[in-house]
Hints:
The chain is of the alpha/beta class. The protein has 10 helices and 7 strands.
Amino acid sequence: MSDQPHSAEFFGEQRDFWWNRDFLALMAARWRLHEASALADIGCGVGHWSRLLYPHLRPGAMLAGVDRERRWVAEARENFQRTFPAIPPELISFQQGDALQLPLPDASFDVVTCQTVLMHLAQPMDGLREMLRILRPGGLLICVEPNNFWNYLAYTSLTETEPVEILVNRFEFWLRQHRGRIATGRGNHSIGELLPGYFAELGLRDIVTHQNDRPASLFPPYASPDQKALLEQGRQWQNSATGPWNKAELLELCRRGGGTDEFFEKMFADLVAKYHAEQRAVTDGTYHAAGGSINYLISARKP
Ligand SMILES: C[S@@+](CC[C@H](N)C(=O)[O-])C[C@H]1O[C@@H](n2cnc3c(N)ncnc32)[C@H](O)[C@@H]1O
């Protein structure tokens, strides 16, 4: 296991380019965030999601962020103060706590939200129940969570000439990772797909699903800040053997997902070769992909 705080590898610059601001303004209007006087952001990390939502709330709204990592809580507080220096500090709290046992009172928020957090929980239903506990009746639950399978079915300028068997094997590799992740209590990275059903099971009303409208496109000359950040993120993960390149963890997950060591070694070598082929194609200016991914925004009201 890494000695870094949870999700350290995911807080690079690339995260700043996840959303189109006009799309979020549209979602804020659909969710009527301007009526909300208190919002809780669960698993707030360094506050990316809180800072995007806060300007859409009723002026003078309270915000409470909770994360299990002390370091992220401190950074979230600093980031928020730097972004909104005029907001009175007593309106804002970031505190350490567990999503399954939130240090916040019952029925005290108009909006309770999380972004890419339920996907990391071994018991996401318990996390949802705890979020509902602190939501007032009639309040809005908003969860932003992915279906990451799409990333592994990626169709790019390079895949068209690759053997079908390799592409199918790659999907099997990630499917075994997925099963292994769930089996070892590391969460479900495609949980977004299941949330509308979970919301229904919890008896919520007005369940609505949307998708982030911003893909992670790459095309020559890869010069925009978002494309540079995306390429840099990929290189940094590969060079540091973190994120999707943590070999020991991948092997463990593959085994727990029912894959053999032989299959793992074959596919890990394929992934390394694929990575280098992509890097060469970027250098040559022949790599491109519209970069679609599935990130759901699922909302509902507490009865
Ligand atoms: C991928 S990050 C998302 C951070 C933030 N929501 C964002 O979108 O930028 C996942 C966050 O969930 C936090 N986390 C994971 N398990 C948690 C738990 N059981 N309770 C509270 N926070 C948790 C991690 O520390 C991390 O900050």
